[in-house]
Specification:
The complex is a heterodimer of chains A (781) and B (474). With 781 residues, chain A is of the alpha+beta class. Chain A is 29% helix and 22% strand. The longest helix of chain A has 24 residues, at 512-535. Chain B has 16 helices and 20 strands. In chain B, β19 (398-407) and β20 (414-415) form a beta hairpin.
Chain lengths: 781, 474
């Protein structure tokens, strides 16, 4: 049985030898290819008043310049008609005005430099604070409400209020965006794209070209990382390449450099949150009121569903009787922020973890105890009305991580260490995780697959999901082999293509294994049912059975389909049962902070995570560790900065390269990292009892942030609430240590009315299904 | 000219016709060897890492470098091995096998680069297990002696590094007959006097100087770790490139140079200096692990690092504290300039047209107490927000000499002369250090930028001394 075996990635041998091909590796196998280079706006907001491409055409090797006039279909790269592919008004620094095609990349680049663009600069909003002040919002403003938050606050023994801000995050997939388009011998537009959402890439290419979907095929061989950054962002680039290919008749390659990728494409949303919270005398939450404002950038993109998921995760693992959560998307003149592993969940969760971390000292309760005291119990429902199933698993992972991590003993050691060291302090924090699995938007919870059994008994599978390193294909091979009862090596998986499996959902929301696994299994079972009839209990060997079935004119292939049952969601009311189930986990992190510099290292991390019955333990542990370290990067290191001055560079991303934007290197890996999968965790109704794993572990990294807060607190007197910026870079931790030493007050206010969050505007639009899906193309929730 | 070629995975490949701005990565990918990837094009991610056969004494050392920074022409006559050359599916190299089986690749894009960095460490002949349990746990070295810094210049966004570290630490010794291991006992390819259109590698100093006289607008490169970034990210193109990294007169290394000084040839890579000096200059030995990454140090040279005159380099503050002097060579002969007088402004120096840095001289005796303090966001391979190097001599409890070099707090690296004055002549004590720290915090003119705030930079200056004192006092 292949499922459950700890197998390496199906392409591991290709990866390590350099033989695995990515979209841009195909360029060297494609004759007569043209290279595309953008002409990018130096302004954050400006009207294009003149565009003269003739100087570019004079550059040797320049073949054509693509402009709005060339678009035969719809000049839009998004799903909400708010992302013109060739804009008349540029909305951020780096916004591409037009694209130059050249015989070489060098020629295209020189041509782009030669294009003359006249701009009339317009006022730009480049920070979240500016947007909130100017009330620059876009899209719906959802509200999740339960009970009476005023009453809940009035009944509380302690009420606190404050503000929490957090930065976004650059995906920094090692492979930047890439597309290679050609028109084939049958007139089909064929686009190789590094995309998490081939179907949507296909749809956007089609509508830009004025074609129907059946004229366009998109293939994704594999991606060099995606993390959500290739869910919506690849479409425009694929469309530019496809447009160039149809106009020139030659293959067109478009690949962004790192700086272009960072400057031009969306990132994780930064958020601003205002909150008031009430606790009873036992430290139990009585009420939470919060207004979350995300930095959406210049267009809506996926900002609404990201916001919805953020609001749906403010509760994390905690029962809050009275709640009002209100969300807004700010419009700023920056890249259009987009999906990123966790899809708003991390930002929502950071709010409550920040609240608990800051309030615990004021309540005089150990932060870990405060968290555990507020865990959901059987029968309780989330603020959006979904009963929390298996809340006992929260307790299970929590208790196991305390035991596995020897937390009690180490806390004593840490106390002794801290007593003996004035300038270096350690701390250990434990945080829980509950993350909802399924696309909020119900329609996206479907998938398809093709399973072919050939006469020789070999098996070829296709499914709608894409491979970005997460091991989806490995799991699908395992599911197919197990379902058919054949050895793994009899099964091959072919690249994701829209002409094999149509109408797919994005490979996103951690749910691709659940969805595509269900579809692969369905297809296998259809074939198997027919083979069983042929076998009629004789127990024939596979090859023989297949051969006999063929000669008996039995269909040896099948299209499988899966849709998640039992989920529903009303995005206007923000109520329903949007998630098939919750993934649970807990992490215990120990850090050491140098008081002189604020620099820190993570000494040890223990994780217990619930993946159900693991389909593929090596893959799942890899997702947990990788997600965790990526979360650490977001929370403690990665520092997106935009020029917010009034100078000429206003709106420019100042951390637009690997030398200025630092993601974790091997030096950030905790000295000791132990991961355990929760046992006896079968999940009913999901493929082979497994659970999704892609996104949730990222949020286990809150343990590191909370440990840093506690270590900073250890430099000062007891019971001081420590405010810690996010990301908690060495500088941020240094200032937290300094405040702690001075016992400087956190900006948490004590008592009512406190800092009242901006109330919902009754006249503002709410989310509604139409706001998530325009035309026949997708948005997501 | 048409004979220019490189050997890639054992196969000769012609270099003729390759444009001078083509880097080694694009060359290799154009040959169909697409294992090496462009992740950042500035030597920060290591996805393009390949192995070069570089001289190591009489033998060869497999040396990983960032192919995106090296001009293809600079590899004339050299041997390159890529991930494809190490193994193939079905015939994995031991490094590849360990990575594959342990889940060391997820998306796989960074993997060929990791393979090359790790293979170099695998073949490193002086890789030895740590001194045993008595040495205590060492989070930076494996039980097999694998130095984690060897992969400090390779970024992975997927795995979180744990399986890569485990793979690295599980590596054994090369098997007998391993061709790359055996290759190390033979000499590395000698430098070739290359002449290509727009590119020259002079055979000696005289030729280098005459080339510079002939081409007044020539760009001088050595490791090309700075120029490569300019070419890749900012599209700068040189009209003529003179590669000086193998000029023999620029590659001296002696701990007993003129006047007993330590003499460091300008064209030596930082890794070569690091190995060649060992602990001879303790302050430099402190710097290396904090200086960029192994991939960069394998290419970057001492002379290049100084001549580029970055205000945030780590070497300049260190050499300022050591009162280093530079020997500058030109057609008129050599002249010696104190490093403290070398920098004239942001990215400018006293170097005249046609003049090269020949060597760095560190006078002896060396100061008795030295420290190097770097503050950056990331622990490995980051650019300093602030760097402080200090060298102090204490006689009978009194500071008789103090030299402090600073980086990241002004348009040039600079000496903290006011702080030095506060220290000199006073008792080496907590009180003196506290007074000096206050003065040091006000030195320079730090700015707010994406790396750090001015306030933090100033605080870090003062705290550098305070933290050092804590260590000394302990």
């Amino acid at each position: 049985m292949s499922v459950g075996q700890p197998l390496p990635h199906e392409s591991a041998d290709l990866h390590v030898t350099g033989h695995a091909l990515y979209t841009d590796d195909l360029v060297h196998r494609t004759p007569r290819v043209l290279h595309a280079h953008p002409v990018c706006s130096p302004h954050a907001h400006a009207r294009v008043t003149g565009l003269d491409v003739t100087p570019a055409l004079a550059v040797e090797g320049v073949v054509r310049v693509l402009t709005a006039d060339d678009v035969p279909g719809v000049n839009d790269a998004g799903v909400k008609q708010d992302e013109p592919l060739f804009p008349e008004i540029v909305m951020f620094v780096g916004h591409a005005v037009c694209w130059v095609l050249g015989e070489t990349l060098e020629a295209a680049c020189l041509g782009a430099t030669a294009v003359r663009v006249d701009y009339e600069p317009l006022p730009a909003i480049v920070s979240l604070a500016e947007a909130i002040d100017a009330e620059s919002f876009q899209g719906g403003r959802p509200v999740i409400e339960r009970g009476d938050v005023e009453q809940g606050l009035a009944e509380a023994t302690h009420v606190f209020s404050g503000v929490t801000e957090m930065a976004g995050q650059e995906h920094f997939y090692l492979e930047t965006h890439a597309a290679l388009a050609l028109v084939d011998e049958a007139g089909q537009v064929f686009v190789q794209s590094s995309t998490q959402h081939p179907t949507e890439t296909q749809e956007i290419v089609a509508h830009v070209l004025g074609l129907h979907s059946h004229h366009v095929t998109v293939q994704c061989l594999r991606m060099g990382g995606g993390f959500g950054g290739k869910e919506m962002q690849p479409h425009g680039f694929a469309a530019v390449a496809a447009l160039g290919a149809t106009l020139t008749g030659r293959p067109v390659r478009l690949r962004l450099t790192r700086t272009q990728d960072m400057t031009m494409t969306g990132k994780r949303h930064g958020f601003h949150a205002q909150w008031r919270v009430g606790f009873d005398d036992a430290g139990r939450l009585t009420a939470l009121e919060a207004t979350l404002t995300s930095d959406g950038g210049w267009s809506l993109d996926l900002s609404e569903p990201v916001l919805a998921r953020a609001l749906c995760h403010v509760d994390n693992a905690y029962w809050i009787p009275h709640v009002r959560l209100h969300g807004r998307v700010a419009r700023t003149h920056k890249t259009s922020q987009t999906a990123f592993r966790g899809f708003g969940g991390p930002q929502g969760m950071l709010v409550i973890e920040d609240v608990l971390g800051r309030c615990a000292p004021l309540l005089g309760i150990d932060p870990g105890d405060l968290r555990a005291r507020n865990f959901y119990v059987e029968g309780q429902a989330t603020p959006y009305g979904q009963v929390v199933r298996h809340p006992e698993r929260l307790v299970a992972v929590w208790e196991q991580v305390l035991a596995d991590g020897e937390v009690e003993r180490r806390r004593q050691e840490i106390a002794a260490f801290n007593a003996a060291h004035r300038h270096v302090k350690r701390a250990l924090a434990v945080t829980p995780l509950k993350f909802g699995i399924s696309f909020n938007f119900t329609a996206f919870n479907q998938a398809g697959a093709l399973v072919h059994v050939y006469k020789d008994g070999s098996v070829l599978i296709n499914h709608g999901g894409t491979e970005m390193g997460q091991g989806l294909h490995t799991k699908m091979l395992q599911v197919a082999a197990t379902s058919l009862g054949v050895p793994l090596e009899r099964v091959r998986l072919a690249p994701t293509r829209t002409d094999k499996v149509p109408n797919t959902s994005a490979t996103a929301a951690s749910s691709s294994t659940d969805l595509n696994g269900g579809a692969v299994k369905d297809a296998c079972e259809q074939v198997l049912a027919r083979l069983r009839e042929v076998d009629a209990g004789r127990g024939l060997p596979w090859d023989e059975l297949v051969r006999e079935a063929y000669f008996g004119r039995v269909q040896l292939w099948a299209a499988g389909f899966y849709r998640t049952e039992g989920i529903h969601w009303d995005s206007t009311a923000m109520q329903g049962h949007p998630f098939k189930y919750f993934a649970y986990g807990a992490a215990a992190a120990e850090v050491e902070v140098d008081g002189f510099t604020g620099s820190h290292r993570t000494r040890r991390v223990d994780i217990v995570h619930d993946v159900g019955d693991s389909l593929s333990p090596l893959v799942d542990v890899g997702q947990i560790e990788g997600g965790f370290v990526q979360g650490m990067g977001w929370l403690t290191l990665e520092d997106l900065r935009w020029d917010e001055s009034d100078g000429a560079g206003r709106g420019r991303l100042t951390t637009q390269s690997a030398s200025t934007y630092k993601l974790p290197s091997v030096g950030e890996l905790p000295d000791e990292l132990n991961v355990a999968l929760l046992e006896h965790a079968h999940e009913d109704g999901v493929v082979h009892g497994s659970k999704a794993v892609g996104e949730p572990p990222l949020m286990l990294a809150f343990s590191v942030r909370e440990a840093l807060r506690e270590a900073a607190a250890a430099f000062g007197p007891a019971r001081v609430s420590v405010e810690l910026a996010s990301p908690a870079t060495p500088e941020a931790v240094f200032w937290a240590v300094e405040r702690s030493r001075r016992a400087a007050a956190d900006h948490v206010l004590d008592g009512l009315p406190g800092r009242v969050p901006d109330p919902p505007d009754p006249s503002a639009p709410r989310l509604h299904p139409e706001s998530e899906q325009v035309d026949n193309t997708a948005g997501r929730s | 000219m048409s004979e220019a070629q490189i050997t890639v995975n054992g196969q000769p490949r012609p270099l003729a016709g390759v444009p001078v701005h083509t880097n080694a990565l694009d060359l290799l990918r154009g040959l169909g060897l697409t294992g090496a990837k462009e992740g950042c094009a500035e030597g920060e991610c290591g996805a393009c890492a390949v192995l070069l056969a570089r001289p190591d004494g009489a033998g060869t050392r497999w040396t990983p470098v960032n192919a995106c920074l090296v001009p293809a022409a600079a590899l004339d006559g050299q041997e390159v091995v890529t991930a494809e050359g190490l193994g193939s599916p079905g015939h994995l190299h031991p490094v590849q096998a360990e990575l594959a089986v342990r889940g060391g690749s997820q998306c796989g894009y960074c993997t060929p680069g990791f393979v090359c960095s790790m293979a170099a460490e695998y073949y490193r002949t002086d890789r030895a297990a740590p001194a045993g349990p008595a040495a205590g746990p060492d989070p930076e070295h494996g039980p097999n002696g694998f130095d984690l810094h060897a992969i400090g210049g390779n970024l992975c966004r997927c795995t979180g590094y744990r399986p890569i570290r485990d793979a690295a630490w599980a590596l054994g010794e090369p098997a007998p007959g391993d061709p790359l291991a055996e290759r190390q006992s033979a000499p590395a390819p000698a430098p070739v006097a290359t002449r290509l259109d727009g590119f020259a590698r002079p055979a000696d100093l005289a030729e280098a100087l005459s080339l510079l006289a002939e081409h007044s607008d020539a760009t001088v490169v050595a490791g090309s770790t700075d120029w490569g970034v300019e070419a890749n990210l900012r599209g700068r193109r040189a009209s003529y490139v003179v590669a000086v990294d193998r000029v023999p007169e620029l590659r001296a290394l002696s701990t007993d140079g003129p006047g007993g000084a330590v003499e460091i040839g300008a064209a030596l890579t930082l890794s070569e200096v690091e190995r060649g000096l060992g602990d001879a200059v303790p302050l430099l030995a402190q710097v290396w692990p904090q200086f960029a990454s192994r991939l960069i140090r394998n290419s970057a040279t001492v002379g290049g690092n100084l001549a580029t005159a970055s205000p945030i380099g780590d070497l300049a503050p260190t050499l300022l504290a050591l009162e280093a002097r530079l020997v500058l060579a030109s057609a008129d002969g050599d002249r010696e300039v104190p490093l403290a007088e070398f920098f004239t402004g942001y990215r400018t120096t006293v170097l005249r047209p046609g003049e090269l840095v020949r060597s760095v001289r560190v006078p002896r005796p060396l100061a008795g107490l030295t420290t190097f303090r770097k503050v950056a966001k990331r622990r490995y391979d980051d650019i300093s927000s602030v760097a402080v190097a200090a060298a102090v001599d204490v006689v009978d409890g009194t500071v008789v000499r103090a030299r402090i070099g600073l980086g990241g707090v002004a348009a040039t690296p600079l000496r903290a002369r006011r702080t030095e004055a506060v220290l000199e002549g006073r008792a080496w004590s907590a009180e003196t250090v506290a007074a000096a720290a206050t003065v040091l915090a006000a030195e320079g003119t730090p700015i707010d930028d994406q790396r750090a705030s001015a306030a933090y930079r100033s605080a870090m200056l003062g705290n550098a001394l305070r933290a050092w004192w804590e260590e000394v006092a302990r």
